[in-house]
């Protein structure tokens, strides 16, 4: 049986080893399931305590995707079978996924993420947790949750609110598909290499004199990636987001009614903006309200606070939000004709929004209280 995630160690001339995590469900674009999340968490915790492991690499099999998100089908089926209830499947998956993401953000050793190909949803959560986030000319990064009745979770409440201007809100509402230059501009990538530079990079890693000092290895890995970057033969491209930051900020200015009107009345010949407009306006109106609530969170909120906030919202979306209908339309029946709870943002009731934004747990009972 093929393992969904593979763990290996790469020996180096220094005597230190590098831990390598390979997501290995190519046919599912390396989407994360609960078993993968649990296995990764366990292995990373072991490597964090192992003095012989200098740092960790997370990559994926195949050429199409690093990680296209989470495998949400099990949550969908459990939620359909138990309407208006918070299921164990939803609670456990999101709890474990957020604990894994938090572990990566807080990891004592360097974590290099090879963000080649499709990086979406849960894949962005893994990428954002890395200290060394490598993008390539094939990277395509997006948070498309508005189309399945969710919102940009996996720490999005933290990193989206630290992007320039209104960019986080724009990415959440529109699921805009970023290239490497866009990823750099918003802070999701910090190194750029070509797709074909992966093998030479691993060869070079084996020759570095790694130590048992995490700060030293952090600096060594940065230096190595910078050297490799100097010889890249492909172009990172241009960032449309950087070029149009001012227009995006104007488009996202105001309250939810203002932004909905501005997007609805927008006339543009820019194909990327037209796609973004269409995705936003066809997305879940309930998701719009969550995304606006998310964008209004203080950027002083800690990462742990953000994950605790997200867990309550995510399980609520599955029990009494638009998640089940969104997944049905996109992944189960694939008719792409979701019948959202509310057909328009103007029809969404304050009671429905409050219900989604109210955590089902007290602070003492919260599954992530010890984060």
Describe this structure in words.
By secondary structure, the protein is α/β, with parallel strands linked by helices. The protein has one domain: 2-enoyl-CoA Hydratase, Chain A, domain 1 (Alpha-Beta Complex). 47% of the residues lie in helices and 11% in strands. It contains 17 helices and 9 strands. The chain has helices at residues 34-49, 73-81, 88-106, 122-129, 156-159, 167-174, 180-185, 198-205, 214-229, 240-243, 245-251, 256-264, 271-282, 285-295, 303-320, 323-332, 350-357; strands spanning 5-11, 17-23, 53-60, 65-67, 111-115, 118-120, 132-135, 140-142, 191-192. The strands form 2 sheets. The protein has a 6-stranded mixed sheet with strand order 1-2-3-5-7-9, with helices on both faces. α3 (88-106) runs antiparallel to α15 (303-320). The chain is globular and about 65 Å long. The two termini are 34 Å apart.
Q: Which H/E pattern describes the elements?
A: EEHEEHHEEHEEHHHEHHHHHHHHHH
User: What number is the mean pLDDT?
Assistant: 96
What is the CA-CA span between the terminal residues? 34 Å
Please give the CATH class. Alpha Beta
Q: What's the CATH architecture name?
A: Alpha-Beta Complex
What is the H level of CATH, i.e. the homologous superfamily? Answer: 2-enoyl-CoA Hydratase, Chain A, domain 1
Tally of separate helices: 17
Low-confidence stretches: none
Number of individual domains? 1
User: Which percent range fits the helix content?
Assistant: 40-55%
The main β sheet shows up as: 6 strands, mixed
How large a portion of the residues is in β-strands, by DSSP E? 5-15%
Q: What is the fold named in CATH at topology level?
A: 2-enoyl-CoA Hydratase, Chain A, domain 1
Computed Rg: 20 Å
Organism: Shewanella intestini
Protein name: 3-hydroxyisobutyryl-CoA hydrolase
InterPro entries: ClpP/crotonase-like_dom_sf, ECH_dom, HIBYL-CoA-H
Pfam families: ECH_2
